[in-house]
Amino acid sequence: MLIRKPAEIEPSEITPKSVYLNRRQFMATTAGGLFVAADAMASLSAKPGVPLKDEKTNSLKEATTYNNYYEFGVNKEDPAANAGSLKTRPWSIVVDGEVAKPKTFSIDDLLKLAPLEERIYRMRCVEGWSMVIPWIGFPLAALLKQVEPTAKGKFVAFETLNDPKQMPGVKYAVLDWPYREGLRIDEAMHPLAILAVGMYGDVLPNQNGAPIRLVVPWKYGFKSIKSIVRIRLVEQQPKTSWNMAAPNEYGFYSNVNPKVDHPRWSQATERRIGEFSRRKTLPFNGYADQVAGLYVGMDLMKYF
Ligand SMILES: Nc1nc2c(c(=O)[nH]1)N[C@H]1C(S)=C(S)[C@@H](COP(=O)(O)O)O[C@H]1N2
Ligand SMILES: [Mo]
Predict the structure, then answer these.
(1) The ligand 1 atom nearest the CA atom of 178
(2) What is the pTM assigned to this prediction?
C-alpha cells in the first residue's frame, strides 16, 4: 500500500521497504470483545524506520523496564512491575473544545485514521538519560484534521486516564492528576509529532503508554503523555502537570536545549541507556533541521 512521506521527514528516518506488523498481536489485544475492522488491519502495514546514524536502537528490554509512568509508581522499574492492571480495551479518546466537529474516537477509529508507520526516534528524558526507540504510529495531525480546529484552537491539551482502581500511583499527590500535557497547534500539526500505538513491531506495552500515547521527539520525554483519554483544543496555553508541580524547573515548551540547564543539573550531556560515556545533547534533540522553524523569533531561554 502507498504510504506518503511528509517532506519534513529525513529519508534516513523512514525506509522504502514495507513490512507487516505482528497482526496476530494487534488482534490478540483487541480480543477482549472487539474485532479490528478489515480496513484497519490493512493499515497495519508499516515501513521500518532506518536506525539513526551512529546510534544504536535500544533493546526492547531497556525500553520497557526503565520508564517513567508515575501513575504506576515513581521508580524506573515500577511501571513494568505495576502497569499490568491497566485495562486497554475498550478505550476511546474524547476530542472537543475549539473544533467544528467534536468526536469520540474508539481505538478502532484511531487505527483507521492514517496508515501506521515505524519511526525510530531519539527520546531524551529531562533527568539526563536517553534512548532510541522504534515507535509505530501515525501523525497527530491526522486526528486533529478530522475534528477541524477553529481559529480559536491555538493549543492542544492532553489528559491521561486517571483511575485509582487501575493506577496505584494516583493516590499519591506527587502530581496533580490526571497527568496533563500540551502543545501549541503548529507543534501538534508538525509531521514528527505522532500518536504511537506500538513499538518494536508490536502493540505498546502498558508501561509505555498503551493503548495510545503521544511521541514528540524534539521535546523532553515528559511531554510525550501516555494512555490518552482526552484531547481538547483551547485558546489559552493549557496547564501541564510538570509545570504546575515545579514551574521554575519545567516550562511549557520543554524543547531539548543543551543551553538551558535544569536548576539542579546541567542539560549539556546525556547518558544513552546502554552506553558508558556521556553524549553531547543536541539542540531540539537532533531534530533542529525539521522543527527550529516553529520557534523563529522566540527567546528559547525565556520560553524553556
Ligand atoms: N501519563 C504519563 N505520561 C508520561 C509520564 C508519566 O509519568 N505519566 N512520564 C513521562 C516521562 S518523564 C518520560 S521520560 C516518558 C518515559 O516513557 P517512555 O520511555 O515510554 O517514553 O513518558 C512520559 N509520559
Ligand atoms: Mo522524563
Answers:
(1) 1
(2) 0.89
